[in-house]
Amino acid sequence: MDAVFRALADPTRRQLLDELFKEDGQSLSALEQRLPMTRFGVMKHLKVLAEAHLVVTKRRGREKLHFLNPVPIRLVHDRWVSKYAEPWAARLSELKKKMEANEMEKVFEVYIRTTPERLWEALTNGEMRAEYSFGSKVTSDWKPGSRYTMSPPDGEGVWGEGEILEMDPPRRLVQTMVPLWSEEIKREGPSRITFEIHPQGEVCRVTVTHDQMREGANDELYGGWPMILSSLKSLLETGKALHFRPPEWVVERWKQGQPVASSRSGS
């Protein structure tokens, strides 16, 4: 965590994060125009932020786009802040906001001391997934083209569903996701989630890309990822997940409208 605090100590680097907060997925040229410094200076600061995993990059054609990654800040939150100020800090990790054409994309990243095989098991084993995903169990036969469902901890109804698009164990899992926990969120329609596993020595870098969301999509769709990834990291490194309560908006919507039926039921 030293790298995170070191990166945040510099006001210019904080300004870069602010710029990515305002508009995520920016190129180096775009960021250079927003700061009173040379291109080389911006590159140096982005390098420090990338080394702290506060910024991740994705190639889009010939451009390299920079995304703000809130997971390291969530890990700081889990270690200290949540002990004292959980009510007002629970949404600290929801830092990013992006508007790109008619779609929105969010990128999250975390490093976990584990093997690709163990990580793959955690992604595709419904019981394990429930341990770090607010108690939501995922049921599927995990084959391309197959359907999956997400059920709440009590097993009554369906929180979400989707289709498995790609399976490349233990490297890449791509699935659609249709949220069903309220009538309002159901109107968001399907989005896509891509899990990518990159082994690096004794650790694995996990990148989650949540895209194909409409511009200005409801943050209920993606706001839980920092907590899910933090809990996954804890489960695989210590054997014990961080048992977050489901976000309050999920609990309240569930109370108001349970049970939520599958979209295939015609509701």
The proportion of residues forming helix, as a percent range, comes to 25-40%
Query: How many individual β-strands?
Result: 10
Average pLDDT reading: 84
The topology string of helices and strands comes to HHEHHEEHEHHEEEEHEEHH
Outline the low-pLDDT stretches. 87-101
* Fourth CATH level, the homologous superfamily of the largest domain: START domain
Structural commentary:
This protein has 267 residues and is α+β, with helices and mostly antiparallel strands. The chain has 2 domains: 1-68, Winged helix-like DNA-binding domain superfamily/Winged helix DNA-binding domain (Arc Repressor Mutant, subunit A); 70-265, START domain (Alpha-D-Glucose-1,6-Bisphosphate, Chain A, domain 4). Helix content is 38%, strand content 27%. It contains 10 helices and 10 strands. It has helices at residues 2-8, 11-22, 28-34, 39-51, 71-89, 116-124, 126-132, 183-186, 225-238, 248-257, and strands at 26-27, 55-60, 63-68, 103-112, 137-139, 147-151, 160-168, 172-179, 191-200, 203-214. The strands form 2 sheets. Strands 4-10-9-8-7-6-5 form a 7-stranded antiparallel beta sheet. A 3-stranded antiparallel beta sheet has the order 1-3-2. Helix 1 (2-8) runs antiparallel to helix 4 and helix 5 crosses helix 9. It is globular.
